[in-house]
Amino acid sequence: LRFIKKTLKNHADEVVTLHKGTPMTLKAVFQSMNLSTYDLTVDMLDVHADRNTFHRFDKFNAKYNPIGESRLREVFLKTDNYMNGKYFARIIKEVASDLEESKYQNAELRLSVYGKSADEWAKLARWATQYNVYSDNVRWLIQIPRLYDIFKSNKIMNNFQEFLSNIFLPLFEVTNDPNTNIELHKFLTHVIGFDSVDDESKPENPMMDVDAKSPEEWDDEENPPYAYYLYYMYANMTVLNHFRKEQGLNTFVLRP
């Protein structure tokens, strides 16, 4: 809340997003929602978590949208938006400096990698190094939403192997030769592990047996079961960790 108010006061005329192709300033975004700095309160932002948040995935997801507006999420909480994640980086730096001041508090913050395209890692690392979001008191955990079925239905990919390759291939390449992407190499030294996120209350057939299709054969519209996702994340990470250890680099944990 403090950050949004401050930014609205000092950077109201900064272009923050495109709406139907036309540039929109921060001021215009808030005007389009009939809001001014004086209207904003913590309750209105509605992003605090209560116990219901962790039972219901839809509620949990909705909390990412300040005031229930996905536009504000895009402006303030994304790394790959119109401003290349400038505000998000500033928020993180403020949180990190608070942690550094209090000395004995540390945070483990999460960033998403979706497996939608192979350049996601490079973009994320570029954002992290460009704004230097590094702090001794912060480590990163990468969360991977289980969205294969959505990518498949939108014809972004043909099979589950493409999803896995988008996530893991860039990591193997940069482990093999850090010079292929120095930014990513640096960024990964502050990443401690991976998490798998989606609605775990959805019923599914958990059978993982000998007949389960391999990832390149998995071209169904349907999402693979949770166990299938986790198995292939685990299998790729195990090999990646052995490789990184041989190269004298840090390794990752799987913490779904």
TrEMBL record:
> Among its keywords, does the record have tRNA-binding?
no
The UniProt record lists the keyword Zinc: yes
| Ranges in coiled-coil conformation | none
Which UniProt keywords are present, listed alphabetically? Hydrolase, Metal-binding, Nucleotide metabolism, Zinc
GO CC annotation: cytosol
Annotated region (Disordered), positions in chain: 199-220
* Gene Ontology biological process terms from the UniProt entry: AMP metabolic process; IMP salvage
Q: What is its EC number?
A: 3.5.4.6
Cofactors: Zn(2+)
Q: Which GO terms describe its molecular function?
A: AMP deaminase activity; metal ion binding
Taxonomic superkingdom: Eukaryota
Which enzyme class?
hydrolase
Report the InterPro entries cross-referenced here.
Answer: AMPD, Metal_Hydrolase
Q: In which pathway does it act?
A: Purine metabolism; IMP biosynthesis via salvage pathway; IMP from AMP: step 1/1
Q: According to its UniProt record, what is one Pfam family this protein matches?
A: AMP_deaminase
| Homology family | Belongs to the metallo-dependent hydrolases superfamily. Adenosine and AMP deaminases family.
Q: What is this protein called?
A: AMP deaminase
**From which source organism is this entry?**
Mirina christophi
Lineage of source species? Eukaryota, Metazoa, Ecdysozoa, Arthropoda, Hexapoda
